[in-house]
Amino acid sequence: MDKRKAFTPLEIKIRNRKNSNRVRKGFLTDPVRGKFSNGAGFTLVELLVVIAIIAILMAILMPALQRARKQGKEAVCKSNLHQWGLIWSMYCDDNDGYFCGTVMGDWPRGEWVIALRPLYDTKRGILKCPMATKRLPGGGNQGGTFNTYRMGGGGVGDRREEGSYGVNCWIYKPRPGQTIIQGRPTKHNWKTKDVEGAYRIPVFADTMWRGGGPMEEGTKGDPPQFDGQWLGAGHEMKHFCIDRHNGSTNFLFMDWSVRKVGIKELWTLKWHRNFNTAGPYTLAGGVTPDDWPDWMRPFKDY
């Protein structure tokens, strides 16, 4: 005879519920705790592995994020130059197609700053490329590859604007009888926007000074010995020869188009009416790698 105690239906239901809770609790906790140092969480080794994985992912992603950030700033720079194209176009349209002339006396390279001020004064942020928004440490008015220049004291309003774009000084319209501007013969000046081949003629660009009138070689045309070299305002090509956008700079041309220009490509642009675009620093002119400073040799030749 089976003497085991018989359970009522209610007791059976309570007993089954207790067993179910015990199984569920053990399933959720006991095996897991068996894997991690007696239920204390992750071990030091496991934490280090996780940290190492995060560090590897960051090392992979950071260069891509930095490239994306620079590309974004380059796009903003081009947008700024498109706005300058509208400003220059409006100025020329209001002045029978001519560019500005001498209005400041002591600052022939910076004449545009005051001449165009009524057109840009409400949006002065476009004076600066987003890659160059802060002053160069150590004083002086000049800028750098990633730094702004500053206008000198005086002038109309004494604004002392900061900028990181500058003008091709060969576009200026000289005063009647003015044959030389800072050693640049005015017979070479464009004076007006209504010329052939406007797509090759620089008007406005990334720079470390308020303007420059480059020549094919010599003081006004030789490349800098290092990126951002400053030897004075008279070293005209050096103002534009900077590595601001990964081997290039951005330019506004006389047809009001904007495009990237390779650093060595600067010597192939039509800076003034008689500029030799096949000069000694071009492939057509026979340039060799040894003709370039070390920092420029990896860049594309033109």
Short description:
The protein is built from four helices and ten strands; from the N terminus they run ααααββββββββββ. With 302 residues, the chain is an alpha+beta fold.
What does this structure look like?
- By secondary structure, the protein is of the alpha+beta class.
- It has one domain (47-296).
- It is built from 4 helices and 10 strands, in the order H-H-H-H-E-E-E-E-E-E-E-E-E-E.
- A 5-stranded mixed beta sheet has the order 8-4-7-9-10. It has a 3-stranded mixed beta sheet with strand order 1-2-3, with no helix packed on it.
- It is elongated and about 125 Å long.
- It starts with 8 loop residues before the first helix and ends in a 40-residue tail after the last strand.
- Mean pLDDT is 86; it is low at 23-37.
Any descriptors?
single chain, 302 residues, alpha+beta, 3-stranded mixed beta sheet, elongated
Largest sheet: 5 strands, mixed
- The Rg value, from CA coordinates, equals 33 Å
Give the number of domains.
1
Estimate the global geometry from the Cα principal axes.
Answer: elongated
Care to count the β-strands? 10
- Low-confidence region ranges: 23-37
State the secondary-structure class. alpha+beta
Q: Write out the strand line-up for the largest beta sheet, numbering strands in chain order.
A: 8-4-7-9-10
Describe the oligomeric state of these chains in a short phrase: single chain
Summed over residues and divided by their number, the pLDDT gives a mean of 86
* H/E element sequence: HHHHEEEEEEEEEE
- Helix percent band: 25-40%
Strand content: 5-15%
- Secondary structure tally, helices: 4
Ends apart, CA distance between termini: 108 Å
